[in-house]
């Protein structure tokens, strides 16, 4: 099973400047974050609060669906899914 992960530019310094990653053996978003941490130590602290929940200024999407409206970090992943990590944008 392979899931494609799209990494935003500000976080690419933690992924050896890779914008797209392929992750395997990920049952859900929580597993994906743990797998990213194993491969790229330190990235989890940039993605999650101390309680393991995504930082509020980062949005995670699975195939264009916001995980906040799915099952959060328990949102299941299947082969071929695309996970986008998108920093929140604010302005006035």
From TrEMBL:
Pfam families: ThiS. InterPro entries: Beta-grasp_dom_sf, MoaD_arc-typ, Mopterin_synth/thiamin_S_b, Sulfur_Carrier/Prot_Modifier, ThiS/MoaD-like. It comes from the Bacteria. PANTHER family: SULFUR CARRIER PROTEIN CYSO, SULFUR CARRIER PROTEIN SLR0821-RELATED. NCBIfam families: moaD_arch (TIGR01687). This is MoaD family protein.
